[in-house]
Amino acid sequence: MNILQSTNTINLNSLIFLSDIEVGKHLYWEVNDITFHGQVILVSSLVILLTLLFSFLGTSNKNIVPNGWQNFMESVVEFVKEIAENQLGKEYRPWLPFIGTLFLFVFGCNWAGAIIPWKLIKLSEGEFGAPTNDINTTVALALLTSFMYFYAGLSTKGFGYFKRYIEPTPLLLPINILEDFTKPLSLSFRLFGNILADELTVSVLALLVPLIVPLPVMLLGVFASSVQALIFSTLAGAYIAEAVEGH
C-alpha cells in the first residue's frame, strides 16, 4: 500500500511539475491570483470560433445532395467516424462527439501554429503560437481523456470495472494502477514535444536561412501536425475501447 501511495504521489507531483515548464516568454493574465497564459487562451478561442463557424456553415443549408460547406463537413464527420469506429467497433456512437471534438480541437490548434504567420503580430510579452506547444494545454487534454475512459468503464460496468486491476492476477495490481498514470503523461508529452520541436525548428531555420529552407520544413510541420491530431484522438478511442471491453 505504501508503494502505491508513493507511486501516486510521484505521478501527481510530475503532473504539477509539468504545468510549470516554460519555453520562452509568455503573455500572462492575472485574475484573482490565478495566472493564465494569454496567448494560449486567445489562439484556442480563435480555433474554437473557427470550428463553430465551419460547423454552422456546413449545417445551415442542408441538402439531400451535399455540396460546398456541407460536403466538406460531412467528409470531416465521416473521417472522425472512422477513427471512432475502428477503435470502438459498433458501439462507437456514444463516444463519437468526444473523440470528434478532441480531434478537431487538437487539429485546429496544431494547424494554427503551423500555417498562421503569428510572428508578424508583436506582443508586449511572449508570442502567439500553437496552443498545443504549451504543456498546460496538452496535460489538460490528457487528463480529460483519462477522465473519459474512467467514465466509460464505470458507466458500462459499474464498480466491476475495477476488477481489471487484479486481472489476470492480483500481483499485477501495482502495474495496472501505474499504467493509468502513465497514459496521460505519455499523451501530453508526445503532443507537446512534437509540436514544440516543430515550431522551434522552423524558428531557428527562419533566422539562419530565411525564405527558402524553412518552407519544406513548414510543409512537413503541417503534415506532422495532422498526424499528431490523428494519433491523439486514436489513442483516446483506444483507451475508451479498453475501458468498455467485454461489455
Structure overview:
With 247 residues, the protein is mostly helical. The chain has one domain. Helices cover 69% and strands 3% of the residues. It has helices at 2-18, 38-59, 68-88, 96-115, 135-157, 173-208, 214-244; strands at residues 28-31, 34-37. The longest helix has 36 residues, at 173-208. The two termini are 30 Å apart. Residues 1-8 and 15-19 have low confidence and may be disordered. The chain crosses the membrane at residues 36-57, 95-115, 135-154, 191-213. This is ATP synthase subunit a, chloroplastic. Belongs to the ATPase A chain family.
Rg computed from alpha carbons, rounded to a whole number of angstroms: 20 Å
What is the overall silhouette? globular
Q: Characterize the biggest β-sheet.
A: 2 strands, antiparallel
Order of helices and strands: HEEHHHHHH
Overall number of strands: 2
- End-to-end distance: 30 Å
- The parts where pLDDT drops under 50 for at least 5 residues are 1-8, 15-19
Q: What number of domains?
A: 1
**Percent in strands:** under 5%
Look at the helices and sheets and give the structural class. mainly alpha
The average pLDDT value, as a whole number, equals 80
Helix count equals 7
Q: Could you estimate the helical fraction of the residues in percent? A: 55-70%
Task: Write out the strand line-up for the largest beta sheet, numbering strands in chain order.
Answer: 1-2
